[in-house]
Structure formats: structure tokens, C-alpha cells
Amino acid sequence: MAITAQDVNKLRKMTGAGMMDCKKALTEANGDFDKAVEILRKKGQKISASRAGKKASEGSIFVKSVDNDSKCILVALNCETDFVAKNDEFKTLGQTIVDLAAENNPSGIEELLAIKDGNLSVAEKIEELMGKIGEKLEISAYEELSGDKVISYIHANNKLGVMVALKGVNGTDVDEAGKDVAMQIAAMNPVAVDKDGVPQDVVEKEIEIGKEQARAEGKPDNLLEKIATGKLNKFYKENTLLNQQFVKDSSQTIAKYLDSINKGLTVTAFKRIVIG
């Protein structure tokens, strides 16, 4: 059957796909709009397969706070180019995904992709937009964090996101302090909240490095363990959040800074996600 310009325009408004793509889909579907939409979605799936080897190193991070800021959800949606990351449809999709995550509490990315929004799952919505823009899209991170209060911070053109969970709030306004700590995490990239959170393999590696450095400096064998322990303590001060010097005031650690805001205020956990 003949495909009119009005038909093409109608399908374009329904899907947002390009005019030529809409015309081809309608022709293939013999004018059936439902089949044409399915064909366009399948095109997205084909794009997904054909671009599987492409690197989606651009994108944006989206966050949503719920339950009176006692919980926060973070989703990183990746694409191939910064141009697409700034696209309104891409931003809308990212916000939709993080909203759905907040409503449904999926256990991981796989469950998140399966969540339905109307007739389409999150995975199908991603495929649909891929069909329209011709780039690989993927969810590279999905994180959630809970605490007395969870503060989020997005930096570096939406490519770096931090969530920090605070304990000991006790009704105090800790928004500014929480943001200060989140910015500290963004800038200094600590490996853990405190030394108890440092993985054992990292501890052993740092001790071994300390011993080798001391040995190379000609220190006697009976002092290597002591010297390595001293170097490990320095590692804790530089790389664990609560023991780091506060970047805004090097005279105090993060632990002391938080305690000065409210006695007993501290960090229980944090997440730091970077795109690219």
C-alpha cells in the first residue's frame, strides 16, 4: 500500500524516530502502525547487537532521594558521545529509570532492566531510544544507600556521583556538612570509611610495599615490620575518609569536622561512581 507523508509524520510523532526510518518501517509493515513501531523497536535491538563492541564511555548520573532523605538511589546511564548525554530524551530516560528504581527497589541492574513502565520494560525503553539515536546505551551502575540521612552530590558535568550515609544526625541540619563530605569523597577518592573497612588484601599489599621500601633504603630486617606498620598508618590517614584531612580545613580530619557539627555525627557508608 502507498505510504503517505501524513502516515510517516504520525509515526514519527508517536516514536520520535527519523522520517526515513519511519517510512521504511511503515513500508515493511504494510501500513500497520503497531507493526511499524515493533519494527523500529527491533531496529533498536539490532543497533544494540551491532554496537556491542562500541565503548559507551560518556553519559550522566541520576540520583533520587526518598523516605525523607534516609535513602538515595543512583543510576549511571552511559552512551557513546557527550552530545547524546546532553540530549533531552536521554536525560528524560535516565530520570525515568532512577524513578522506577526508587519505586520498585530492584536488587541489581538485571532486575532494574526488567521493570515495566507501561507496556515497555526499562531494557526495551533503552532499546527504543537506541533505535532513534543510533548509539549504544547501557546502565553501568545502580546503587542505593540508606542511613539517618543520605546526601548526594553530582560533579564533573554529571559524570561523577557520590552518596554519603550519615549517622548521629539527631535532628540537626547536616545538609551543608554532608555536601562537604560528599565533595571530599569526590575529590580525594577514599578507599573506605575508616581503616576497619579497608580490604585485607589491600592491607597486606601496603605492608609488603612498606617492607620493600624500607629494605631498599637499607633498614635492618628487625625493623621492617615496625616501619611497614608506620607506613600503613600513613596510608590509613591519606586514604580512609574519616581519617583524611578535611580539604576545606587541613587542621582537622573529617571525623573531627563532623563531630564539631553535631557530637557523634559520622559516616557509615558511601558510594562514588564515575563515568568514563
Oligomer: single chain
Number of helices: 11
Can you say what the CATH homologous superfamily of the domain at 53-146 is? Answer: Elongation factor Ts, dimerisation domain
**CATH class categorisation of the domain at 53-146:** Alpha Beta
Mean pLDDT: 94
As a percent range, the share of strand residues is 15-25%
Which CATH architecture of the domain at 53-146? 2-Layer Sandwich
Whole-Å distance between the termini?
Answer: 47 Å
Gyration radius over CA: 25 Å
Largest sheet: 3 strands, antiparallel
Overall number of strands? 10
At the third CATH level, what is the topology name of the domain at 53-146? Tetrahydropterin Synthase, Chain A
Residue windows where pLDDT falls under 50 for at least 5 positions: none
Spell out the helices and strands N to C: HHHEEHHHEEHEEEHHHEEHE
How much helix, percentage-wise, in residues? 40-55%
Q: Find the structural class using helix and strand composition.
A: alpha+beta
Overall geometric form: elongated
Q: Biggest sheet, strands in spatial order?
A: 1-2-5
Give a description of the structure:
- This protein has 276 residues and is of the alpha+beta class.
- Among the domains are: 5-42, Orthogonal Bundle (Helicase, Ruva Protein, domain 3); 53-146, Tetrahydropterin Synthase, Chain A, CATH 3.30.479.20.
- 48% of the residues lie in helices and 22% in strands.
- It contains eleven helices and ten strands.
- The strands form four sheets. It has a three-stranded antiparallel beta sheet. Strands 6-7-10 form a three-stranded antiparallel beta sheet, with helices on one face. Strands 3-4 form a two-stranded antiparallel sheet.
- Strand 8 and strand 9 (249-253) form a beta hairpin.
- It is elongated.
- It starts with a helix and ends with a strand.
- 34% of the residues are buried.
- The mean pLDDT is 94.
